[in-house]
Design brief:
This protein is mainly α and 495 residues long. The chain contains 20 helices and 2 strands. Helix 5 runs parallel beside helix 11. 59% of the residues are buried.
Length: 495
């Protein structure tokens, strides 16, 4: 008899993913086994515990991964680069559960499924950032994408939600198809799936000018651009961000962008180092288009969710500058930038979720009038988040942009820094318009709002906003410890 050989499994490397999968399964069981009126609480508790446990396991994995290595038949990478990204994803997921808690009347019918899908999406993202070959990359990408498609359309009573889910499915499917076809071309050219072996085959066979490999790389970049909501692959972003339930939008804005950009850096640096002259210019061009399109489109928006959607396209451009720099400082800048950016995105959408629940409709700039005085914590937090998005001091956004520009200067691309500075100057108009709407509008401009007593306290949502505020401001003062963590993680990539 022939004995079957199986790969050795490093269960600790998979622990954050398994914790979230367990939470997803328990939340789904709760939806079936407990009375419907309790499904929301049971699902929310299991999802929160799953993200909290995965966060702790990711931190332990970061500490224990001082030496990068490939595990599980070299299918995934066990390193600090992946572990730090998993920390951001799990933190975003935990805060998203808190933001979602008061959605009870809106998702009651599918409460258990909602939290199960949220945890499943987090598991797929945690698995994706550790992917070490093209097959695992595609499977993990579809894993979390399918969960987000359903979450975007889970408010079946709203046409906008169904439209968002359908658009995300169609456009996301197109992006996934581009990524899959590109991976097939890369495999056809090199005969390899592992990132490191693709680089070795390219060097050994002299494939630097192979049209098949270049076409495959271009399609891989296109597929990742869709997931990162970078222009010109951004067409799904404004409609999906606007139509999806706001807690889902908050989670997508932070976690999806994190995993897409972290994965893009890993793939490009590890698998295509010999083609860096090609992909660095391509990424720099996409960064410039994202900065221009995102900021100019945001200028004319009155719907705040759509404004933040275009803002996220602009921030994808800033973070792509770090990837285009193709140096260790760029890796450090990307990882640091994602920490305050994720907190600011989650916090800003959480404030909008609270306002939406008060008004029962989408929030326009005019609807923010008086919020700064009615709900001081939410108003102050949204003000700080806008300053952080603009990259102003006393927020982590300032150091994020500073590190990104420093990486571009080290690369010798001062022109790219100039583009980023101009984009930042343009963005001040619409970010400060939010601050003006909160605090500085005259009595003649303020509309009467529907009155129904004091707004709900929403303790978990306010706690999530306070946590985001603490990270946004704290990352400015704790820049050295955070950049040290990011530096230790970035060093494990083969720059």
């Amino acid at each position: 008899m022939i004995a079957a050989t199986t790969p050795k499994v490093d269960w600790f490397a998979l622990a954050p993913v398994l914790a979230l999968l367990a939470a997803s399964g328990l939340a789904l069981l709760g939806a079936v086994l407990v009375p419907r009126r309790r499904a929301h609480g049971v699902g929310g508790v299991f999802a929160a515990l799953g993200f909290a446990v995965a966060f702790v396991l990711s931190a332990l994995l970061y500490v224990d991964s001082g030496e990068a290595r490939n595990v599980v038949a070299e299918a995934i990478a066990r390193d600090r680069f992946a572990a730090l990204a998993q920390l951001i994803v799990c933190g975003a997921g935990l805060l998203a559960v808190g933001i979602s808690w008061s959605e009870r009347p809106r998702v009651e019918e599918h409460a258990g499924e909602y939290y199960a899908l949220l945890a499943a999406a987090g598991a797929g993202m945690a698995f994706l950032v550790a992917a070490n070959n093209l097959m695992v990359l595609f499977l993990a990408l579809e894993w979390f994408s399918i969960s987000l498609y359903v979450l975007s359309a889970i408010r079946a009573d709203r046409v906008e939600s169904l439209e968002a889910g359908l658009k995300y499915l169609i456009v996301g499917g197109f992006g996934s198809a581009a990524l899959l076809f590109g991976s097939a071309l890369v495999y056809g050219s090199t005969g390899e799936l592992m990132f490191g072996r693709i680089a070795e085959a390219t060097r050994a066979q002299g494939l630097e000018s192979d049209p098949l490999l270049l076409a495959g790389l271009a399609m891989v970049i296109t597929g990742l651009g869709f997931k990162a909501s970078a222009a010109p692959f951004h067409m799904w972003t404004p409609d999906v961000y606007d139509g999806a339930p706001t807690p889902v939008t908050a989670f997508m804005s932070a976690a999806t962008k994190t995993v897409a950009l972290v994965l893009a850096m890993r793939v490009l640096v590890a698998a295509f180092p010999q083609l860096d002259e090609f992909w660095t210019l391509a990424i720099a061009a996409i960064a410039c288009i994202s900065l221009a399109w995102g900021n100019l489109a945001a200028l004319v928006q009155r719907n705040v969710k759509r404004m933040l959607a275009y803002s996220s396209i602009s921030h994808a451009g800033f973070m792509l500058i770090a990837i285009a720099a193709n140096n260790e400082l760029g890796g450090r800048a990307l990882l640091y930038y994602l920490i305050p950016y994720s907190a600011m995105s989650l916090g800003a959408f959480a404030v909008l979720a609270a306002r939406e629940r008060e008004l029962g409709r989408a929030v326009a700039l005019d609807d923010l009038g008086g919020l700064g005085w009615e709900r001081p914590l939410l108003g102050l937090s949204l003000w700080v988040f806008m300053l952080g998005f603009a990259g102003l001091p006393l927020t982590g956004g300032f150091w994020g942009k500073f590190l990104v520009f420093s990486a571009a200067v080290e690369r010798g691309w001062t022109w790219l820094v100039i583009v980023g500075v101009v984009a930042t100057a343009v963005s001040l108009y619409y970010y400060l318009s939010v601050v003006r709407a909160l605090y500085m509008r005259s009595d003649l401009e303020v509309r009467l709002m529907p009155a129904g007593g004091s707004p709900p306290r929403e303790g978990l949502l306010q706690a999530a906003v306070a946590a985001c505020l603490a990270v946004t401001v704290g990352s400015f003062f704790a820049v050295q410890p955070l950049t040290d963590l990011a530096e230790a993680a970035a060093k494990q990539l083969p720059f």
